[in-house]
Amino acid sequence: MSLTATAIKVQEIAEKGESLVSLSPSQAARLQELRFCRVLPTSDMGSWRVTDVNRVGVVAIDDVRIIVKPKTPLRSLIFMASYSGVQASVRDAHFAFEADEDLPSALASAFLSAVDDATSRGLLKGYIPVNETGTVVRGRWDVARQLKSRPGLPVPIELTYDDYTEDVAENRIVKAALRALMRIEQLPSRVIDRAGVTTTLFADVSELRPAMSVTLPRESRLNAHYQPALRLARWILETTSWAHSQGASEGATFLLNVAKVYEDFVGRVLQVTLRPAGFDVDLQVSDWRLDTGGEVRIRPDIVISRGGRVITVADTKYKVWGDSNGSPPNADVYQALAYAVTAGVSEVHLLYVSGEVEPRKYTIAATGSTVVAHAIDLFGGPELLMVSARDISEALTRSNEDPSLAPHN
After folding, report:
1. 133 forms bridges with which residues in the sheet?
2. Cα(57)–Cα(70) distance, rounded to whole angstroms?
C-alpha cells in the first residue's frame, strides 16, 4: 500500500561534506546497506551522520524519503548525461525539466524530451539477422544449420535473412528505460503518464535482456539523432539496475553515479574534439600493467595517442581541486605518476571539477615527469561547461613547454 504524501518524512543529504538525518536503527542499517555512503551514529538518539556520499538521487525507506542533492547544478548534470557530440547546440529544447527540483524527475523529463526529438520522424529502423524455419525459400538457405537440425530431410528449410525492422537495439534500450521510469515511485504522476504514452510507440519492439550495464550501439549517421536519448536511457538503466543489485525494493531507490557521468562526458568531449585532428582517444584502458610481472594493474580513464604513440594520459576526478591547501591530494599525484612511468610520457593530467581557475604543473624531480592539475567548471551552465571542456582538450595536446604553466616542485 502506498504512503500518502502527508505520511512521508522528507530529509536531505548533501553530496559533499556531511549531513545529519533522523532515522531508526533499522532504517540507518538499510541506508548503510545501499553502500553509497557511510552512516555513523551520533550522541543523540535517532540522529545519524552521513558522509562519503558517492551517488545522488532519492532513497525511500519506509516512511522516510531521503533526497541526496547533487553539488552540480541539475542543468549541467543533465547536459553531461545526455552529451553525445551530435547536439547542434546547448539549446533549451533538452531542458524542459527545469520545473523539476529533484534528480529523478529532472532526468526523466529530459529523457522523455530527448525521446520525443528522436522519434519525431518515426522509430529508427535497421536490418537485423533472422534465423527462421519455413517451407518457402526466403533469403539464404543455411545449409550447416539444416544438416545439424534435420540431416537428409529437405523440408522444412532452415533460412537466414536480414529483416528491415523497428526491433533494433536502439529502440530496445529506449523502451527498457521507459519501462524502468514507470516503476520509480518518486516520479510525479504527470511524468509516469507521459512515459506510459511514449511507451506505446515501442509496442512492436522486443524487451531488452536485464543487465547491470548497457552497451550502446556504435554511433552512425543513421542513429545520430538517437544519441542523446540513448545516453540518458543508459544512465536510467544503470541507476535502476544498481539499486536493484544492492537489494533495494524495486522503484524505491534512484541513485546516479555522478562521477561516472562526469568521466563519460569528459572522455566523449575529448573524442569529439581531438579525433578530427588526428588523435586517438581511448577510454578506460584496462590492459596496462605497472610491474614487469604484469600483476599490478592500472586503468587510466583517458589515453591520447597519435600514430600509435601515446601522447599523454589523463584521469578525471569528480572532486573540487584545492579544497584544503590548493594542491591535489597526494594519492592523485601518485596515481598520475604511475601512468606517466608506464606510458613513458613526460606529462600527465588530473581533471578536477571547479576549484583553482588556472592549471598548475607539479614536476617530479626523481622521474622528470610533470603532473598538471586542471579544473572544469560545472557551475556556469552548459555553455561555459563546453568552453571549459574544449580548453582542456587543447591543453592535453599542446606542447609541454607552455610558459603559462608555472611549475610547482
Report:
1. 158
2. 8
Phi/psi region, residue 110 (left: phi>0; alpha: psi -120 to 50; beta: rest), is alpha
Q: Please, which pLDDT band fits residue 154 given cuts at 50, 70 and 90? A: low
Q: Quick one: average pLDDT of 76-97?
A: 66
Task: Assign 288 to helix, strand or coil.
Answer: strand
Angle (nearest 5°) at CA 51 between 45 and 52: 155
Closest to 51 (Cα-Cα) out of 61, 65, 64, 41: 41
Residue 229 backbone dihedrals phi, psi, to 5 degrees: -65, -40
Domain covering 261-397 assigned CATH 3.40.1350.10 in the classification:
yes
Q: How many residues does the chain have?
A: 409
Query: Nearest Cα to 165, choosing from 218, 120, 200, 128?
Result: 128
Residue-wise pLDDT tens digits, 249-293? 656 788 999 999 999 999 999 999 999 999 999 999 888 999 888
Rounded CA-CA distance 44/195 in Å is 43
- Encode pLDDT of 336-360 as tens digits: 999 999 999 999 999 998 766 678 8
Q: Which residue reads 569529439 in cell numbers?
A: 272
| pLDDT band for position 86 (cuts 50, 70, 90) | low
3-state helix/strand/coil string of 185-201 = CCCCHHHHHHHHHHHHH
Residue with cell 511524468: 191
Pairing of strands 309-321, 347-355: parallel
- The sheet with strand 370-376 has its strands ordered as 280-283, 302-306, 309-321, 347-355, 370-376, 360-363
Grade residue 128 by pLDDT with cuts at 50, 70 and 90: confident
Q: How far apart are CA 150 and CA 146, in angstroms?
A: 6
Shortest CA distance to 15 belongs to which of 64, 50, 65? 50
User: What 3-state DSSP class applies to 297?
Assistant: strand
Distance CA 210, CA 240 (A): 11
Q: Buried (b) or exposed (e) across 261-282, using 16+ Cβ within 10 A?
A: bbbbbbbbbbbbbbeeeebbbb
Specify the pLDDT at position 208.
87
Angle at 171 between CA 116 and CA 254, to 5 degrees: 75
**Cα→Cα distances 89→72, 167, 383, Å:** 20, 30, 9
